[in-house]
């Protein structure tokens, strides 16, 4: 099977150039074609000899492919469906799988929420994606293809790794994609424009903290371990307290930012008791909290907090020293909001 060039580092592209009989410096040219000019075929690489292009084409693909379906929300949010197959590492079935990405325009910002796995293993009780089960790790090429191949790609100002899957459970490919996005030889984006989220998979998180300068978002959702584990099985394996102890070893005053995602449920995690424990746990860690409205999915046993309670929680936490905002919900009508990615477009 041919390998994709998308996702390869400068050093690897130099090796690719040498292996097809080109000079080492052609590796830099390849990086420019792939990551700056963002070509979709070898024909477009006009400063590489015809012989070289033919040799490349025999052994490699670019790794680019278009979304196969799209849905547009009343609020302008767009959801894209990508079909992935052979290039997915560890695909659990022989057939192809689908993933979704969500484009969220907002005044002068335009954010893309990308997937890092097909489905997810983590099984968070409140998340519709969790019901899909796990279908495979996305390669760096498949992660980058979402960013490069949506129609509004050149309008993007921010990227969040918050789509299908747990990024820290696919850390090699996630780090590789971040490297391509931020390296001088790649897309040269500031790491401050990219946020990677996690439920707290500690080994992957450790590598992320050491090898990337991008922002971090932790899905917290309940400050009490016993209650958190009822809705997030990961708590049984990696405790939130251990995740926080790890984070407190890093310098968060400068450069990168850590935020905590907190879906609000009526009486389940929006009470004074929870607010006080949140403050206690996060003391000493410069951070912010994003309160998220719950989008009822398959399991109607969860009921979201009402607006008044969310505002109370926001004000209580903010008044006690943690900047807290209520995140505006986007794309709910097309199942594009947080935790709603179930590849529904593939059945349309
Ligand atoms: Fe997976 Fe994230 Fe959904 Fe949890 S919330 S099941 S980690 S996609």
Task: Tell me about this structure.
With 348 residues, the protein is α/β, with parallel strands linked by helices. It folds into 2 domains: 3-61, DNA polymerase, domain 1 (Orthogonal Bundle), CATH 1.10.150.530; 69-347, Alpha-Beta Barrel (TIM Barrel). It has 11 helices and 14 strands. The chain has helices at residues 10-19, 26-36, 50-59, 140-149, 171-182, 202-211, 225-231, 234-237, 240-247, 272-282, 307-319; strands at 3-4, 60-61, 69-72, 78-84, 97-106, 109-113, 117-119, 134-137, 158-161, 194-198, 215-219, 258-264, 288-293, 323-327. The strands form 3 sheets. Strands 3-4-5-6-9-10-11-12-13-14 form a 10-stranded mixed β-sheet, covered by helices on one side. Helix 1 crosses helix 2 and helix 4 packs across helix 5 (171-182). The longest helix is centred in the last third of the chain and has 13 residues, at 307-319. The protein binds iron/sulfur cluster. Residues 120, 122-124, 127, 129-130, 164-166, 199, 339 line the site of iron/sulfur cluster.
Radius of gyration, in Å, reads 21 Å
Helix content: 25-40%
Instruction: Give the class from helix and strand content and strand pairing.
Output: alpha/beta
Total of domains = 2
How would you describe the oligomerization state of the chains in this entry? single chain
Q: Give the class-level CATH name of the largest domain.
A: Alpha Beta
**Average pLDDT reading:** 93
Q: Estimate the strand proportion.
A: 15-25%
CATH third-level topology of the largest domain:
TIM Barrel
The SSE order reads: EHHHEEEEEEEHEHEHEHHHEHEHE
- Main β-sheet, in a few words? 10 strands, mixed
- What is the number of beta strands? 14
Give the cofactors and ligands: iron/sulfur cluster
């Amino acid at each position: 099977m041919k390998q994709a060039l998308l996702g390869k580092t400068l050093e690897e592209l130099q090796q690719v150039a040498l292996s097809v009989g080109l000079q080492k410096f052609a590796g830099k040219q390849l990086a420019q074609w792939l990551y700056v000019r963002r070509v979709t075929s070898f024909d477009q690489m006009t400063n590489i000899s015809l012989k070289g292009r033919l040799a490349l084409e025999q052994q490699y693909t670019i790794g680019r492919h278009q979304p196969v379906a799209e849905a547009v929300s009343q609020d302008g949010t767009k959801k894209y469906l990508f079909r992935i197959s052979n290039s997915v590492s560890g695909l659990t079935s022989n057939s192809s799988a689908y993933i979704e990405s969500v484009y969220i325009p907002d005044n002068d910002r335009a954010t893309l929420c990308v997937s890092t796995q097909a489905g997810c293993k983590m099984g968070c009780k409140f998340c519709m994606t969790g019901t899909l089960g796990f279908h495979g790790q996305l390669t760096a090429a498949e992660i980058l293809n979402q960013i490069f191949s949506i129609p509004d790609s050149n309008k993007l100002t921010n990227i969040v790794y918050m789509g299908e899957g747990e990024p820290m459970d696919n850390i090699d490919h996630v780090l590789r994609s971040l490297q391509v996005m931020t390296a001088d030889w790649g897309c040269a984006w500031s790491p401050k424009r990219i946020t990677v989220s996690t439920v707290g998979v500690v080994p992957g998180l450790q590598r992320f903290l050491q090898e990337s300068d991008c922002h971090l978002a932790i899905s917290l959702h309940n400050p009490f371990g016993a209650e958190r584990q009822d809705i997030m099985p990961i708590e049984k394996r990696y405790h939130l307290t251990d995740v926080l102890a790890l984070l407190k070893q890093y310098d968060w005053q400068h450069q990168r930012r850590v935020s905590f995602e907190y879906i609000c449920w009526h009486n389940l995690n929006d009470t004074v008791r929870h607010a006080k424990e949140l403050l206690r746990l996060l003391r000493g860690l410069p951070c912010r909290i994003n309160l998220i409205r719950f989008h009822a999915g398959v399991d109607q046993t969860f009921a979201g907090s009402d607006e008044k309670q969310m505002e109370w929680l926001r004000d209580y936490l903010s008044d006690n020293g943690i900047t807290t905002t209520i995140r505006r919900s986007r794309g709910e009508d097309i199942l594009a909001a947080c935790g709603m990615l179930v590849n529904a477009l593939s059945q349309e």
